[in-house]
Amino acid sequence: MRQTFRMMSLLMMMLFVTALMACGEGESGKNASDGGDDSSETDQQKLGDKDVTLATDTYVSNIGATYVVKHLLEDVGYNVTVKETDVGIEFSGMATGSSDASVGLWLPGTHASYWEEYKDKLNKMSMVTEEVELALTVPSYMEDINSIEDLTNNKNNIGEKLEWDITGISPGAGMMEITKEKVIPAYDLGDDWTLQPSSGPAMAAELKSAIDKKEPIVVTLWTPHWTFNEFDLKMLEDPKNKYGKPDNVYAVSRNGFKDDSPLAYKIIDQFSWSKKQNQDVMYSIQSGMSNDDAAKKFLENNPDMIDKWMDGVEKKK
């Protein structure tokens, strides 16, 4: 009898242990299949640090791209700040960690000096736009001025007509450095011509004013730029190739950004578009739309591009 009782007790204990194990496995299975908590944690790990600062210079060609990327990142849950500043501060800011990334690194020419100075603290990412060009540029109605050498030779007294001024942009811009240090000496323009610094918007305003009056003007210009949508322009030939081959535009980030905000890094690394697409956004901004609205308009009109840039990325619910 006592033996039977002991066997029954042992059997009940075994059943109790088995039940506990089953409950544990059930609870574990529930946790593993609970898409809410676990997927949320996974998404958080993908997002990493949700606060992202995008750096850009004040040139509308880079501002348009920056705001398109801003909206892509916001759509997956990031809090994005855009920091518009001088190009030198743009790169030093990423090097020191006050900004996270930019989609406006022009290489091998325009931003070469900044890249050489800060490249050990920066990470060059994928190409954003292929073959962007720098050139001294004139309205197409200046039919006899087709080369920088025409300025050297003062063809048709172009120097006197322009009071020997070339209208530039901000002094810290890579194009201004190349024009001053390479182009002007190579074409012997330094004795007569003066490169007048201003800003991107001021240069464009001077260009528009001259075209409205059909007056001559020479400006520092590049592609992509909204003025090519608005006006009939021609880039002057550069037979000595001092502006060099066309640059490519790259995304760039501070070291460590990929680890800190991996999904943001992935999206930026997948972002690329054509010069025409950039100019379309630039033209919307120039026509009076805000940076945000111009970017939203482009995204609404180009869902196929969104699919490309967001490949493998889920939007926030």
TrEMBL record:
Signal peptide: 1-22
Main location class: membrane
ABC-type glycine betaine transport system substrate-binding domain mapped to chain residues: 50-301
Organism listed in the record: Lentibacillus halophilus
UniProt xrefs under SUPFAM superfamilies: Periplasmic binding protein-like II (SSF53850)
Protein's UniProt name: ABC-type glycine betaine transport system substrate-binding domain-containing protein
Subcellular location: Cell membrane
Region (Disordered): 27-48
